[in-house]
Design brief:
The protein has helices spanning about 5-15, 30-35, 50-55, 75-80, 90-105, 125-135, 160-180, 200-205, 215; strands at about 20-25, 40-45, 65, 85-90, 110-115, 145-150, 190, 210. It is an alpha/beta fold. It has an 8-stranded parallel β-sheet with strand order 7-6-5-4-3-2-1-8. Helix 5 (about 90-105) links the parallel strand 4 (about 85-90) and strand 5 (about 110-115). It is globular. Bound molecules: pyridoxal-5'-phosphate (PLP). Pyridoxal-5'-phosphate binds near residues 197 and 211.
């Protein structure tokens, strides 16, 4: 299957209300253009350097999502153009994103990454850390970021029930934040969960954004 056929398959498998982020990490500009020509305008990358260099070679109307772990010293390279940062996991990072967005007279959409997997290796906030960010006085001053929701990555396992449990937990946490913080977070509407191996479960559990790479572009080497 070529890229446009795979894309068509994925599109027909997900409801219209769920946004598809095509994860193009490691893929060439030519391959990304195949997806673009097939109508895909939203792409995700997980390395700052790679994204910054690809971006200049691709159409301006692409909406870029940064989905990787982000170091504060690299925020400045993304701030001029990035639409959404999916894996924000500290107040320090939020402040830096705000600072760099302000410098560029922009607002950057952010998702807070929650640790939902069993593995220690995956990044993300605990529930306690999430609420301490949301309770922080400093948050009100960050006017150039827009906290749009939560993001999570499930355990890499064939155990679907485990994956479902993790996504369900994330959805529950999302609802808790929505109900408690609706006044300070009016745009809190997104749950970024689901990848090639688990997006069907994620959608059943309430995902609003899926991040899909290999099922569109083929395996990465
Ligand atoms: C690579 C990556 C994806 C996409 O993974 P696939 O299994 O190729 O769909 C999604 N989210 C994040 C954070 C990633 O790094």
């Amino acid at each position: 299957m070529n890229v446009s056929e795979s894309l068509e398959n994925i599109r027909s498998a997900i409801p219209k209300s769920v946004r598809l982020i095509a994860v193009s990490k490691t893929k060439s500009v030519e391959t990304i253009m195949e997806a673009y020509d097939a109508g895909q305008k939203v792409f995700g990358e997980n390395k700052v350097q790679e994204l910054a260099s690809k971006k200049d070679l691709l159409p301006e109307d692409i909406e870029w999502h940064y989905i990787g772990h982000l170091q504060t010293n690299k925020v400045k390279y993304l701030a001029p153009f990035v639409d959404m940062i999916h894996a924000v996991d500290s107040m320090k990072l939020l402040k830096e994103i705000n600072k760099q967005a302000l410098k560029n007279s922009r607002t950057v959409n952010c998702l807070l990454q929650i640790h939902i997997a069993e593995e220690d290796s995956k990044f993300g906030l605990s529930e306690g850390e999430l609420f301490s960010i949301l309770e922080s006085e400093d948050l009100n001053e960050l006017r150039n970021i827009n906290i749009k929701g939560l993001m999570g990555m499930a355990t890499l396992t064939y155990n679907d029930e485990q994956i479902r449990k993790e996504f369900r937990y994330l959805k529950g946490l999302f609802e808790k934040v929505q109900s408690r913080y609706s006044t300070i977070l009016p745009g809190f509407t997104e749950i970024s969960m689901g990848m090639s191996g688990d997006y069907e479960i994620a959608i059943e559990e309430g995902s609003t954004m899926v991040r899909i790479g290999s099922s569109i572009f083929g395996a990465r080497h």
